[in-house]
Each structure stands twice: as C-alpha cells, then as structure tokens.
C-alpha cells in the first residue's frame, strides 16, 4: 500500500546545485542512455581518433537510420504490449515490390516511394487485423507473416536483385542536404513526428492507454481494435520506408534486405527503455538506443574487434541495459 | 480471532505481509511458540504454520480445483505425483468450506467467491496454524460470508488462530475476540468486541469523527422526474433475463443481489461492453443500441467497474491523464493536446472532489484506493456523463473516503445525475439509495423504497 504521507518533491523544485542536472538527467526516461552514449563516444574517440571524423560519423548515422526506422515502428507496437517479428521481412518484401513498380512502370520516384510505404502499411495492417480483431497472439501471427513475407520475396525474385533503380530515385537513399544523408533526415523527421504523436495526439495517448490497461481502455471508449490494427500498419509502413531507402541507396533491391534487421530494431527499442509489457517507452529513447547500437558496432569495427566477438558484446550490452533500468526503477 | 482495522494506508496489509514472509521488517522481532524467528520467504512462513489468504485471487485458472489447492504441495509416490492422495487431501479441505465445490472442476469455471474458498483450502491443506485474511469478504455476498464465518469459528475451535483485516465492522464485532486499531503505521489501541461500538471503532480509525451518513430523506419531487434510463426486457443468455427497470434523473437506484446474481453483467450490457440478446434500452426516452462503450459514453451512460485496478485505472499514467482520458478531444488545439488545459481541468476537479494526490503529475498508482475512485468518478463528470452505473464504488475504500464519495453522489443527484448503485453491502445500499432493485440469479425480484426497507426485507425479496 503506497499511501501519500508527504508530497514527493516535484522535479522542478530540485536544488540547482552542480549534481542536480545529473540527477535530473538520470531520472528522465532516456537520461541514462544519453549518458551511456556520450561516455561510449568519448571512450571510442580516445581509443580510435578517426571515430570523430566527419566521414565516419556520416557513415554511422546513415547506417543507423535504416534499422532506426524499423525500431521506431517496433516501439509503437511494443508500447501497445505487442511485438512485430515480421518487420525485417516486410522491409525486404516492400523494397522488392517498390523496385518492381519503379522498373516496370517508371513512375515519378516520389510516387514509387509512397506506393512502397503504402504497401508496407497494408501488409502491416494484415498483421494488425489478425492480432486486434481476431485476438491472436502477436508473437505467433508475426512469426508466421515473417516467413510468408520472406518467402514471397524469394518467390518473386528467385533470389536475384531488382536493379538498376535509376539515378533520380537514388537521391532518397544516397543523397543528402547540407552533408546530412537523406536517410538520416527521414529518420529524424519521422522520429519528431512520432514524438509529437505520442505526446500530443489522441491517437498517441490511446496507444499508451491500451498498452497500460487494455480492458480499462475499452471501457473508457477508446477504439482499441482500430488503434491496434493501425499501429501494426504503421510498423509495416516504417519498415517499408527503411527497406526502400536502403534499396535506393544501393541502387538495387536485394532479396536479402532486412534479413537481419529485426533484432537490431527490437534491441534499440529495449535499450531505449521501452517495456516489453507495454505502456512504457519513448521515441527519444529508441533514437538514442539506435545510435548507441550503431556507435558500438562502428567503434568495435574501428578497434578491429572480430565480428564474432561483436555479437557477444551487443548481447551483453542489452543485458546491462535492462539491469540498469531495473535498478533505476527501484 | 484477532481483527485488524484501520483506514487504507494504515499499514494493516504491510504488517501482515511481514508476518507471512512476503516482506522483511527493518527492525523488531517475531516470536513464534516462545522463540524468535525470521522469515526469508512466504514458503518459510508457511512451513512454520502461517498462511496468508490474499485479498485478490492468486490462482491458476486452467488447472483443476484440486491442483490449485495442492499447488507446490502435491503428494509424491514412487513414480512421481500420487494424484489420488493429492486429490483426496484437496477434497477434505474443500469440504470443510463448501461441500458443493467439485475438486475436479477447472478453476476458471468457479465463481469468484468459490475461488476464494479454494485459496483458503490451500492454506488449511498446508496445515497452517495461523491464518491471515486480508478483506476476505470484499467479494463475498452475505450467504458466502456466513459460510466463511462458520469456517472461522470451527478453525478457532480446533485451536487455530486468525488475523482478520476487514472494513466490515459488523462482521468484526460478531466474530472477533480482540480488535487492534492501526493508524498511520502505528497501533492506536486495542478494543474488546464485547464493549466496542462501531462509532468508537470508526473514531479510532479515523482519528477524527466521521460525518455520520443518515438515511436519505425521501423526496417526493424525485418521483416526478422523467426517467433518464429505461430498460425493458433486457436478456443475455446465461447472465440475466427479462430485466426491466427505470432510473430517474436525480435518483440513486440501489441494485442489490448476491455475487452471481447478474448485477455486473447487467450493468456491462447496458454500457455496451457486452451485447444483450434481446430487450430495449432507452436513454431520455430515446431507444438506443450500445454496440460499444464508446456508444454508451456518447449517450452519457458510463460504467464504473468493480475491479478498479484491472478495468478502471491506467496505473502507469498520471493522475491528470487518468482524469482526462475520456475527454482528451476537448483539449485539442492546433498543435495537439494542450496539456496545460488538461492539468487545469484536473486541478479543478481534484479540488471539487477533494482528491488527495502528491501531485497531479504523478502516476495514479501512487494514490490510495479512495482517491483513485474519485479520479475515475471525476473522469466521467468531466466528460459530462449524467447516467452513472457504479459497480461496488466503495469496495476496499476506507470509511472516510467512503462517506465522502457517498456525499458526492448525493450532490450529483441534486444536479440531475441518475445513479445506479451496485453493492453487496445491504446497509450501504439502504443508506445511500432512494429505491433498491433486487436481483437474484439473473432476474429482478422487486423494487423497494429504501426509506422503508430493512436488510432482512432485502434478503427475503431476493430469496423469494
């Protein structure tokens, strides 16, 4: 029983001493991970001075963006208390479909991009219908659709890439503004929109409500089924966006796109503080989680850590992250 | 039998959690049979002979009743579990409580009350010498509560000891050998049930006199009001059938009935959480069809669930969001939800309903049950809903908060709200309602004017 005896001091009333900012930072959801990211960057830049070079940073950021888009979608699904295992395969299938549209019909690049994202939304929505309307377990539904999407990609392509995609289309994945790669721009813009959505739109708050207490959400009139189905659609759309941007960057839609993106997307969200039980997590956390994973991978490459060991380290980092989160909550 | 009473947050449950090994004390000692002991876990305490029967069900719904009784204590033979011996022990312990429970049934097919009995059987099967009950009768109807009282007397007669936490003071006066009052984590006094009065108990618990709730004066004017909600021939197979009643604006209509009489199911159906098979619902004279709770809310009909934690609150969200959640659209500006407006509205309602919270920004889980309930009420007042279906609105809430909520409901009726008040506590129904509708096994049995009715009469009507 936690009865209020004395009112807890509000955050803004903390004394403005030298430790206060640090304490404030740690108390924030994403504070711990921001601190970890800064420390990691500092450590790597000392051990490998070329880490801080503009070229390297641009590469890291761009590499992070593709999986980052999937991580954002995964965060929404996790907030609902669900999970989507099919997003990697959705990215691959959507990229192939987008590339085929582009090569067969030659629409304006922007239209091809939008159609691809729309296709991703549709296949994500199919997941959502099974989960939300039929109340099937999301783990099983998306495990099945993962296989279906991945298999369909191979059925369509016979394992061969779809290429070339054309110079005009290359700009979306390979171009940039003011030296910032376009995938990074898209990633940050999507993150900003989702941050607004989760904090300031009815739809976004409904996601937290459903993830926190599904039955209570239904009883206060939240259209639970609709919100849930749409969120799976959004996860599919973001996966498609990541996939087609990658194809655009490579000027080729490989059937293997997205094959190994799923774990990275889940990991980034979890390191960023998103709870697997739903109702807890932030977009900022996922963005930082994505960056942390990318920096870690890049740092190990720069320090010539073997790729085999890199996987072990990544797994360890995830465990440490959830342990730290556990301690912070106590 | 030793009764523990005190307001919510007085420390009763915490104390009992320490005794049953769930929590570790910071200081002090527990003496068992003359020797000092310390428990590292509930299992430790159970081995010693102390078992706690938790307030909320902690069962495995898909296992059999027998296995639930014997969970973790199954008898083993030469080749694994000896199922026959295990079932026999379960059956013996169950029979003492309620002979009608079949140990072979699946747990989820039992009523809530019977599942609670299974939890008690689990404690006795472990040969506990000291039983700790935390609000055992909160979900029991009168008849089942009587059964429990009989069990307690028998257990005591065989030399067992019982700690008993309850908000039902009558029950305690009838059963207890000693009463200890707790307030703010400290023992206030010990009382002798032979001489104690309810007023004195309440006074010690609250530390201040509680405004006594008198019977509601009969108001002729209320009779004249138009019906806000009319239900005709409402039926849902297996839950309730042919239910008809009128709820007038400005009225509190009590709904009485044993657990399992279909009260909750009826309210949920009116609210659109489930769909009735047949029958008609009219809101302000207009026939409506509630296909979902959202439809009902649009018509100003809302339901306040019995299971506050499971169906009422969003534990992770702030007090202000819990309060505004049904009405967020109203606070929308060009850039989305204006949280400062939500906060202002929440402050306003917190003040009007005297909701005590550390801050409206803190998670609602930090509030006491009574304050959580007020937040949920405020949620619907903010949404301007005038027909309130309240399911056990004061369950698990301390005496003071209860009086406050009931006073608030009366004020609402003066503003024209219509309230359906479901409760298992007959005394409470008699105090708060204008009329009382009695249900039994899914059927309505009659309506009584609360001013003239008595507890005995309500029971007689239900059983007839």
Strand content of chain B: 15-25%
Helix content range of chain B: 25-40%
What kind of sheet is the major sheet of chain B?
Answer: 6 strands, mixed
| Percent of sequence in beta strands of chain A | under 5%
**What kind of sheet is the major sheet of chain A?**
2 strands, antiparallel
Unreliable stretches of chain A (pLDDT < 50, length at least 5) are 1-17
Mean pLDDT of chain A: 89
Biggest sheet strand order of chain A reads 1-2
- Structure summary, number of beta strands of chain A: 2
Indicate the overall shape of chain A. Answer: globular
Radius of gyration based on Cα positions of chain B:
24 Å
First and last CA, distance of chain B: 35 Å
Number of strands of chain B: 22
Number of helices, counting only DSSP H or I runs of 4 residues or more of chain B: 18
Largest sheet: spatial strand order of chain B: 4-7-8-1-9-10
Overall, the morphology of chain B is: globular
Low-confidence stretches of chain B: none
In oligomeric terms, what are we looking at? heterodimer
The Rg value of chain A, from CA coordinates, equals 21 Å
Descriptive notes:
The complex is a heterodimer of chains A (330) and B (464). Chain A is an all-alpha fold and 330 residues long. Chain A is built from 14 helices and two strands. Chain A has helices at residues 20-27, 31-47, 54-79, 87-105, 109-133, 138-157, 167-174, 182-200, 202-212, 214-219, 224-250, 262-271, 283-302, 307-329; strands at 176-177, 180-181. Chain A has a two-stranded antiparallel ribbon. Chain A starts with 19 loop residues before the first helix and ends with a helix. Mean pLDDT of chain A is 89; it is low at 1-17. Chain B is an alpha/beta fold. Chain B has 18 helices and 22 strands. Chain B has a six-stranded mixed beta sheet, sandwiched between helices. Chain B has a six-stranded mixed beta sheet with strand order 16-19-20-13-21-22, sandwiched between helices. Chain B has a four-stranded antiparallel beta sheet with strand order 12-11-14-15, with helices on one face. In chain B, a hairpin with a 2-residue loop joins strand 21 and strand 22 (443-449). In chain B, helix 14 crosses helix 15 (369-382). The mean pLDDT of chain B is 86. The interface between A and B is large, with 29 and 45 residues.
């Amino acid at each position: 029983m936690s009865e209020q005896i004395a009112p807890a001091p509000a955050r803004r009333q903390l004394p403005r001493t030298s430790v206060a900012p640090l304490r404030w930072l740690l108390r924030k959801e994403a504070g711990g991970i921001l601190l970890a990211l800064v420390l990691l960057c500092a450590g790597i830049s000392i051990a490998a001075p070329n880490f801080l070079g503009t070229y390297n940073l641009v590469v890291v950021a761009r590499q992070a963006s593709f999986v980052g888009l999937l991580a954002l979608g995964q965060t929404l699904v996790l907030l609902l208390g669900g999970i989507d295992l099919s997003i990697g395969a959705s990215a691959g299938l959507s990229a192939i479909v987008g590339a085929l549209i582009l090569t067969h019909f030659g629409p304006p690049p922007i239209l091809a991009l939008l159609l691809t994202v729309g296709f991703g939304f549709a296949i994500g929505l199919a997941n959502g219908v099974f989960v939300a309307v039929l109340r099937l377990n999301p783990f099983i539904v998306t495990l099945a659709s993962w296989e279906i999407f991945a298999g369909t990609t191979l059925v369509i392509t016979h394992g061969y890439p779809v290429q070339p995609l054309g110079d005009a289309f290359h700009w979306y994945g390979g171009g940039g503004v003011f030296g910032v790669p376009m995938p990074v721009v898209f990633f940050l813009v999507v993150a900003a929109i989702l941050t607004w959505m989760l904090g300031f739109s009815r739809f976004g708050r409904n996601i937290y409500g459903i993830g926190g207490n599904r039955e209570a959400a239904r009883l206060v009139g939240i259209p639970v089924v609709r919100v849930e189905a749409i969120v799976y659609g959004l996860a599919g759309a973001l996966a498609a966006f990541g996939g087609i941007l990658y194809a655009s960057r490579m000027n080729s839609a490989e059937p293997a796109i997205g094959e190994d993106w799923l774990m990275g997307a889940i990991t980034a969200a979890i390191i960023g503080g998103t709870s697997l039980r739903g109702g807890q997590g932030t977009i900022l956390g996922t963005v930082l989680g994505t960056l942390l994973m990318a920096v870690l991978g890049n740092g190990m490459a720069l320090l010539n850590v073997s790729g085999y060991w890199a996987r072990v380290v990544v797994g360890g980092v995830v465990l440490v992250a959830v342990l730290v989160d556990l301690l912070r909550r106590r | 039998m030793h009764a523990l009473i005190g307001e919510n947050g007085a420390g009763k449950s915490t104390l009992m959690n320490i005794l049953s090994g769930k929590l570790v004390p910071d200081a002090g000692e527990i003496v068992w049979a003359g020797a000092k002991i310390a428990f590292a876990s509930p299992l430790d305490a159970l081995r010693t002979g102390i078992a706690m029967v938790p307030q909320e069900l902690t069962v495995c719904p898909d296992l059999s009743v027998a296995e639930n009784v014997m969970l973790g204590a199954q008898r083993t033979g030469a080749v694994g579990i000896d199922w026959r011996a295990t079932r026999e022990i379960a059956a013996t312990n169950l029979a003492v409580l309620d002979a009608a429970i079949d140990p072979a049934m699946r747990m989820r097919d039992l009523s809530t009350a019977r599942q609670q009995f299974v939890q008690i059987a689990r404690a006795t099967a472990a040969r506990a010498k000291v039983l700790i009950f935390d609000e055992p009768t909160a979900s029991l109807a009168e008849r089942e509560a009587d059964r429990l009282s009989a069990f307690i007397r028998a257990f005591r007669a065989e030399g067992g000891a019982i700690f008993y936490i309850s908000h039902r003071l009558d029950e305690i006066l009838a059963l207890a050998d000693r009463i200890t009052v707790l307030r703010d984590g400290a023992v206030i006094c010990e009382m002798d049930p032979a001489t104690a009065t309810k007023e004195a108990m309440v006074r010690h618990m609250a530390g201040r006199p509680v405004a006594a709730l008198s019977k509601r004066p009969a108001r002729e004017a209320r009779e004249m009001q138009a019906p806000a909600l009319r239900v005709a021939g409402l039926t849902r197979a297996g839950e309730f059938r042919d239910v008809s009643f009128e709820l007038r604006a400005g009225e509190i209509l009590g709904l009485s009935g044993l657990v399992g009489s279909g009260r909750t199911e009826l309210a949920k159906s009116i609210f659109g959480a489930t769909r009735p098979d047949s029958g008609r619902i009219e809101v302000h004279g207009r026939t409506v069809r509630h296909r979902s709770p959202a439809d009902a809310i649009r018509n100003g009909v809302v339901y306040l669930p019995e299971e506050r934690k499971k169906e009422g609150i969003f534990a992770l969200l702030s007090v202000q969001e819990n309060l505004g959640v049904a009405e967020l659209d109203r606070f929308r500006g060009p850039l989305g939800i204006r949280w400062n407006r939500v906060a202002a509205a929440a402050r306003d309602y917190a003040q009007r309903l005297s909701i005590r919270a550390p801050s409206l920004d803190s998670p609602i889980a930090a509030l006491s049950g009574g304050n959580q309930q007020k937040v949920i009420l405020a949620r619907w007042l903010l949404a301007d809903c005038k027909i309130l279906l309240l399911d056990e609105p004061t369950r698990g809430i301390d005496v003071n908060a209860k009086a406050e909520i009931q006073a608030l409901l009366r004020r609402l009726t003066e503003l024209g709200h219509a309230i359906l008040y479901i409760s298992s506590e007959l005394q409470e129904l008699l105090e708060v309602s204008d009329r009382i509708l009695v249900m039994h096994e899914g059927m309505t049995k009659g309506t009584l004017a609360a001013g003239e009715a008595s507890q005995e009469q309500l029971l007689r009507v239900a059983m007839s």
